[in-house]
Design a protein that fits this description.
- With 232 residues, the chain is α+β, with helices and mostly antiparallel strands.
- The protein contains 5 helices and 8 strands; from the N terminus they run H-E-E-E-H-E-H-E-E-E-E-H-H.
- Strands 3-2-1-4-5-8-7-6 form an 8-stranded mixed β-sheet, with helices on both faces.
- Strand 7 and strand 8 form a beta hairpin.
- The relative contact order is 0.18.
Amino acid sequence: MPIPADWPTTEAQALAEQERLRPLVRAQDDDTPARLIAGVDVAYDDDHDLVVAAAVLLDRDTLDVVEEATAVGRIAFPYVPGLLAFRELPAVLDALAALTRTPDTVVCDGYGLAHPRRLGLASHLGVHTGLRTLGVAKTPFTFTHHEPAPERGSSTPLTDPATGEEVGRAVRTRPGVKPVFVSVGHRIGLDTAVRTTLDLARRYRLPETTRHADSLCRRALAEALRTRTPTN
C-alpha cells in the first residue's frame, strides 16, 4: 500500500488541505438506502512504521458480517492532534477498496464535524470518496456537553465552547453507561447519524461496526508483526 505521491507531508500542507475540503462537506440527508453499513478502524505499530486498517461490512437489519477486508502499509503522517486523518486515511481507503461491495454508509471510529476545523476523519473520508459517513467517538475531544439522561437513546448537544455551535451529540447507547459522541461525516444529517448509531449499538456501548473493525485491525496488526519480525 504505497502512500499517495501528493499526500501532505507537513503540518502546514495538511492544514491547508483541511481548509480546502471543509466547504465540500454536506451535512444533510439524502435518499440513498442504508442497508450495507461499513465500520472502519486503524491500528498502529510506530516502532515498525506499520499501520493496518480494517473495513467490515454489516447488514443493517441483522447486524451480520457480510464481508471484511484489511490493508497494511507505512504510516503516512506524523502524530499531530487534529490531523489524525492524514495518518489513517490512505490505509482506510485501501481497506474499503478491497471490499467487493460498496457500503451505503461508513461509520468511523472518530470524528466528523466534531473537529476544530470541522473536518475529522469521517468528513475527510466522505468528501474524498463521496460515501455517506458519520463519526462515533469514545471521547468528546475538545468540546463540551452535559451528561444525557441515563436512559438508552437520550442525548445532549456536543458544543464548541469557542463558538457555541452544536458539532455533534453525546448519545447514551446503553442505560447508565457513559455516552458516545456522534457527529456528521458527509451526506447525512445529525438526527440520522444518531439514529444510525443507536441501530448499530443494540447490545453494547459501541456500534457493532466499530467493535468488529477494531477487533479485525488488531488481529491483522498482530499477524503483520509476526510475519515481519524474525523468530529465533
